Amino acid sequence: MIRYYFLFILSFLISISIVIGYKSFSEEFKKNPSKNSKSIPIAPKIILDLGKAPSSTIKAKVTSLSGDVIWISRSSKSSELMLNQQIQQGESIETKANSYATLTIGGLAFELDENSKISLIQTLPRSIVIEQNSGMINYISKNQSSPLAIKVEHLLISPKNTEIKITMDEIVKVEVISGDIIKIAYNNLDYTTETVSLSKGDVFMFDDAVREHNVL
């Protein structure tokens, strides 16, 4: 009987010790959690500088300006375009009604008519890629020092040492005003690549909805 009583007292004391020990540990953990747990590494913040193009790119320059012309930055902010302003990769300019502008880059000149928009997709010395978003633009590449590619909807146009005019409406029209042969490529609705060569005086008509063309 005495033995059972002794075991009961011993078990009771052990239980009290466990409770007191756990309470002390909990209070210490709350006071100093860093001492009782492994630190979790925090990933460094990645900051993208949308305001600057890569250092390897070249910049275009606004050489003529008339009326209401808008500059659109790499971060989609817009403001009034200024004469002699430099335009970098990832930026766009847009002319409003009765407004005009000319950009030059790498021996190339882009003359924007009213209600036209152009975006500089890539401006590396070895390759300049432009996207025409709307309107009518004259491209002069007679003194170019960098290869030029122009994206217009699903067309990819590669002029060289020539002058062409591209008009965007329900139908895209490409007029070869002067210079050498230019190449145009696009994928039709069957995903087959179509290529066309144009020379001076040719007029290329393209219906983007059905991916078909006609040369006049």
Q: What is the subunit arrangement here? A: single chain
Bin the helical content: 10-25%
Reported CATH architecture of the largest domain: Sandwich
Main β-sheet: number of strands, strand sense, barrel status? 9 strands, antiparallel
Order of helices and strands: HHEEEEEEEEEEEEEEEEEE
CATH class call of the largest domain: Mainly Beta
Kindly state the mean pLDDT as a whole number? 84
Low-confidence stretches: 4-8, 36-49
Q: Give the radius of gyration.
A: 34 Å
Structure classification:
alpha+beta
Strand order of the largest sheet: 4-1-6-7-10-13-14-17-18
Number of domains: 2
Strand content: 35-45%
DSSP strand tally? 18
Find the CATH topology of the largest domain: Jelly Rolls
Tally the helices: 2
Through-space gap between termini:
117 Å
General form: globular
Protein name: FecR protein domain-containing protein
Organism: Candidatus Roizmanbacteria bacterium CG11_big_fil_rev_8_21_14_0_20_36_8
